[in-house]
Each structure stands twice: as C-alpha cells, then as structure tokens.
Amino acid sequence: xxxxxxxxxxxxxxxxxxxxxxxxxxxxxxxxxxxxxxxxxxxxxxxxxxxxxxxxxxxxxxxxxxxxxxxxxxxxxxxxxxxxxxxxxxxxxxxxxxxxxxxxx
Length: 105
Hints:
Strand content: under 5%
Distance between the termini: 87 Å
Largest sheet: none
Oligomer: single chain
C-alpha cells in the first residue's frame, strides 16, 4: 500500500491542491488497471486526502511564520500596537480640548 501511496504522489498529485474528487478518480484508475484492490481504494483515498490536509496545514503554518518574520524585520507595527497608539492619541486630544477650553474662560 505504501508503494501505491508513493506512486500516487509521484504522479504529480501535489496533494495540497488536489480535491478529493481528483484523488478518487486517480484511485479508481488504479483499481481499473488492477494495481489496487477495490476493497483498498476507500482507505487509500482517505489516506491521500488526510495527507493533503496535513501538507496544507504545514504550508499555512510555514507561510504564516515567514510573513510574521518579514513583518518583524520591516518593523511593521502589530494591530495591538496601533490600537494602543490610537487610544493614547484620543486621550491626548481630549486633554488638548480641555486645556483649550480652560484657556478661553
């Protein structure tokens, strides 16, 4: 079975971008060619789909980490930093208005 798994991957499936329907079609072709027993086809489809989901999750994690690294390297402020600064600005604007009001009296 692991040999079939390797064959499926070597067929260029790129499991991260292949839909379940495409995996099923490829596995059905393996069954038709006699390279896989019909009873094993569902298990292989499930394994390939599961593997694709795992790879997709790994790729998402890797991309997220790389984006975070780049943002950090570029000193891009985090959303929480911006929110904190916005709050401080609002407080300072309020104080300025209060001070201007007390000067006019």
